[in-house]
Design a protein that fits this description.
This protein has twelve helices and eight strands. Helix content is about 55%, strand content about 15%. It is of the alpha/beta class. Strands 3-2-1-4-5-6-7-8 form an eight-stranded mixed beta sheet, with helices on both faces. The chain folds into two domains: about 160 residues, NAD(P)-binding Rossmann-like Domain (Rossmann fold, 3-Layer(aba) Sandwich); about 90 residues, ProC C-terminal domain-like (ProC C-terminal domain-like fold, Orthogonal Bundle). Bound molecules: 1,4-dihydronicotinamide adenine dinucleotide and (2S)-3,4-dihydro-2H-pyrrole-2-carboxylic acid. (2S)-3,4-dihydro-2H-pyrrole-2-carboxylic acid binds next to helix 7.
Length: about 260
Amino acid sequence: MIAILGAGKMGEALLSGVLRAGRRPGEIVATARRPERAAQLRERHGVRTAENAAAAREAGTLVLAVKPQDMGALLAEIGPHVAPGTLVISMAAGITCAFIEERLAGGVPVVRVMSNTPVLVDEAMSVLSAGSHAGEDHLKLAEELLSPVGKVTRIPESLQDAATALSGSAPAYFYFLVEAMVDAGILLGMPRAAALEMVVQSAVGAATMLRDTGEHPVLLREAVTSPGGTTIAAIRELERHGVRAAVIEALEAARDRARALAAG
Ligand SMILES: NC(=O)C1=CN([C@@H]2O[C@H](COP(=O)(O)OP(=O)(O)OC[C@H]3O[C@@H](n4cnc5c(N)ncnc54)[C@H](O)[C@@H]3O)[C@@H](O)[C@H]2O)C=CC1
Ligand SMILES: O=C(O)[C@@H]1CCC=N1
């Protein structure tokens, strides 16, 4: 039995992915703070819902999907009900395995995951780290859960906050760039729907080439950038406005914010 505690955006996305991957609704129990939300989860997915404590007692795998700010309260609630052999998988930004281990009975295996919203389309990036009581078997179980909804990789926990900046938040940066490019289309007189179609398809094409050719992005960009042409005129402006440095600083700020979340 898998329990998804705090099935909001990410928890529900994982829940639907796990069902798409062939697990039966009877194998999953979800929890929610509001009864209307619990009813919605039952109706949409056919899963059971329960109180946190009951779900924690009956499931062999607990997925913690609440916001980092709610993690302390959730762990206080379930702490007495988590059996030592239960695998605890945390999806929260910033929250360390040690934070969770300190609040549960000794020896509970914890795996920390940073995933992202493309879980919804089976294109997530999920980055895993083992806590001090989690071994290879636990990492494998977490990988089995997450690999149907996208790519999975392992990193040392010391790099989890960097992964949060690089992949957890990353869909938002790409959406932001798409918004900005559509705004540019509007300035250039393009109808909004046409601008959106052009930008989105270009994003899909560029992402597919990055993944499927395995080429370095510099080489792919050079192939677009004709001597004396249009692309270099745009790139010069991006460089003049310090977009590369802004991106580096933005991701550093995201990493620092992840670090601060565990402190409350
Ligand atoms: N949204 C995103 O793109 C990503 C989010 N994350 C992480 O995933 C976690 C969840 O984020 P979202 O799904 O975006 O948030 P969300 O707010 O949509 O979901 C959290 C859910 O937990 C519920 N909740 C809070 N305390 C509860 C409790 N004690 N018992 C039962 N339910 C409780 C809330 O009512 C809410 O529905 C966060 O820790 C976040 O850092 C990680 C990667 C990407
Ligand atoms: O913004 C956040 O805090 C969460 C974690 C990664 C993506 N969204």
